């Protein structure tokens, strides 16, 4: 068994007054998801090897009803082209064919939130990984905590004892998860096990709409470009003190094409993208900062997910960017979430003649 470090939390004592005011009884609060608290294993992982990814959404294209899993659902569009809010669907009981349809729906809508998913959440980490493997090879976070014995489940955890960034004007950091990997994530599942009463929302931005809004001449130019994405700066071990896989850099097209929908999407983000290949630093910075500014300011291409208890959010990292909002630090509340992160294909250039191996 590998050595691990476990985060434990101090739960305040609850004082109950009885008939004798000089006597206090102490009751200990039990946290429902204590078994999913993060541990930090000391395991070392080898570099990731390339693999062939078959997107499950491609199978749903042949279904007579590509949205059959939503037949009895209540669906509200968050915006006309980005995001849906769904009720009356139990994700835990979907068939393999319905999971394929789910993948296609998320690719088309960018992000979908499913409410009232306690059945799924209470099935535990083993079920989470079984679910995720339907959508691709599961990515293991090289630094973060995970439930004991389940490194494929990435945990986020903050409570009254956590530190929050206070040195910037905003906590918003737009990114696409692990874009520095040679085969970055595709469809991703995330849910909160515990949350503050207010705050801790998540923002999503459509990289399809962000690209579509640009002028044709800018679109044509961007299709010809590649950019370096790096994990070296971001994978600082701030919690567990462990780096389990060495960080890498990868080169990806600035505009990628979704393998199932065919949509073109910007594929740069401020957290991981470092430089446009072949440009002088000043030229690259000018162009990337323009695109980052465009992504951040395009509110008409964004959706905000307000968390409710037992909600699950699925998004397609290939066509969206997202950011958590850490506006709840002063509440001293717990925010405990789990993410299942299947990898997808190596990004496909929107420009068919682009060569990625030269």
UniProtKB/TrEMBL annotation:
<keyword id="KW-0479">Metal-binding</keyword>
<dbReference type="Pfam" id="PF02668">
    <property type="entry name" value="TauD"/>
</dbReference>
<dbReference type="GO" id="GO:0016706">
    <property type="term" value="F:2-oxoglutarate-dependent dioxygenase activity"/>
</dbReference>
<dbReference type="GO" id="GO:0046872">
    <property type="term" value="F:metal ion binding"/>
</dbReference>
<feature type="domain" description="TauD/TfdA-like">
    <location>
        <begin position="76"/>
        <end position="340"/>
    </location>
</feature>
<keyword id="KW-0223">Dioxygenase</keyword>
<keyword id="KW-0560">Oxidoreductase</keyword>
<feature type="compositionally biased region" description="Polar residues">
    <location>
        <begin position="1"/>
        <end position="11"/>
    </location>
</feature>
<dbReference type="InterPro" id="IPR003819">
    <property type="entry name" value="TauD/TfdA-like"/>
</dbReference>
<dbReference type="InterPro" id="IPR051323">
    <property type="entry name" value="AtsK-like"/>
</dbReference>
<comment type="similarity">
    <text>Belongs to the TfdA dioxygenase family.</text>
</comment>
<keyword id="KW-0408">Iron</keyword>
<dbReference type="GO" id="GO:0005737">
    <property type="term" value="C:cytoplasm"/>
</dbReference>
<feature type="region of interest" description="Disordered">
    <location>
        <begin position="1"/>
        <end position="25"/>
    </location>
</feature>
<protein>
    <recommendedName>
        <fullName>TauD/TfdA-like domain-containing protein</fullName>
    </recommendedName>
</protein>
<dbReference type="InterPro" id="IPR042098">
    <property type="entry name" value="TauD-like_sf"/>
</dbReference>
């Amino acid at each position: 068994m590998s050595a691990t470090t476990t985060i434990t939390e101090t739960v305040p004592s609850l004082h109950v007054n009885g008939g004798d005011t000089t006597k206090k009884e102490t009751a200990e609060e039990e946290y429902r998801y204590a078994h999913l608290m993060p541990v930090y294993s000391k395991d070392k992982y080898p570099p990731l090897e390339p693999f062939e990814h078959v997107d499950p959404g491609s199978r749903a294209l042949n279904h007579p009803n590509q949205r059959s899993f939503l037949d009895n659902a209540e669906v509200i569009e968050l915006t006309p082209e980005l995001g849906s809010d769904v009720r009356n669907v139990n994700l835990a009981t979907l068939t393999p064919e319905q999971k394929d349809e789910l993948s296609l729906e998320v690719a088309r809508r960018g992000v979908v939130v499913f409410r009232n998913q306690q059945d799924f959440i209470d099935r535990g980490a083993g079920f989470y990984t079984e679910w995720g493997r339907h959508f691709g090879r599961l990515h293991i976070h090289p630094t973060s905590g995970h439930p004991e014995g389940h490194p494929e489940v990435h945990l986020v955890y903050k409570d009254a004892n956590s530190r929050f960034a206070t040195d910037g004007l905003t906590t918003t950091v737009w990114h696409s998860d692990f874009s520095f990997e040679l085969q970055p994530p595709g469809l991703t599942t995330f849910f909160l096990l515990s949350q503050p009463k207010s705050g801790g929302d998540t923002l999503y931005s459509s990289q399809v709409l962000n690209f579509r809004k640009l002028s044709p001449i800018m679109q044509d130019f961007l299709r010809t470009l590649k950019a370096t994405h790096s994990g070296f700066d971001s994978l600082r071990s701030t919690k567990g003190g462990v780096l389990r896989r060495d960080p890498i850099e990868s080169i990806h097209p600035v505009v990628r094409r979704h393998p199932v929908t065919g949509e073109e999407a910007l594929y740069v983000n401020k957290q991981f993208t470092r430089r446009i290949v072949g440009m002088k630093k000043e030229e690259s910075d000018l162009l990337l900062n323009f695109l980052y500014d465009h992504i951040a300011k395009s509110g008409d291409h964004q959706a905000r997910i307000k968390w409710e208890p037992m909600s699950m959010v699925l998004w397609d990292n290939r066509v969206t960017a997202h950011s958590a909002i850490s506006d709840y630090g002063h509440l001293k509340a717990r925010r405990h979430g789990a993410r299942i992160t299947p990898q997808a294909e190596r990004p496909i250039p929107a420009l068919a003649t682009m060569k990625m191996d030269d």
